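[step 3/7] fold_predict: job queued, chain A
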Amino acid sequence: MSIKKLDIGDISKTKRPILGDEVPVEVFRLLRIIGMYSILGEGSGYTLYLAGKELGVELDIKTVEELATLLKKLKIGILMVVESSDNKIVVRVDECITCAGLPDIGKMICHFEGGIIAGALEKILKRPTKAIQTKSHTSGFDHCEFHIHLL
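[step 4/7] structure written:
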């Protein structure tokens, strides 16, 4: 028996007439930070990055502006390009759903967001990408920053 793969359109459909289609950031963080880490341990970051990248490639977008609009609409974060060259794009994400407001714990934890951005840019630019997070609330900054290397 084959299981149908859910896409963004499927996931966007909700049937919650009283509770609606939004959940608190705390619920997302419980699943993302505590749930995934307790199941996968240190490997959760890479797993979340790959899941985010797969999602980013599947998004129905054609430009960086469309990506920024979608991330804001989904309340993932507010994206802006800080720097761009032939080999690298630096993006800033304000109000990141995973880390905004969290304390400095000495490491960066926004692997899923980095994956989404890398995957979306890979699709838009038609070039392989790799995202590296360089700033985060959880590393002492007031925003996230990702260096997207164009391979």
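[step 5/7] annotate
Strands lie at 78-84, 88-94, 129-135, 144-150.
The CA atoms of residues 80 and 92 lie 5 Å apart.
exit 0
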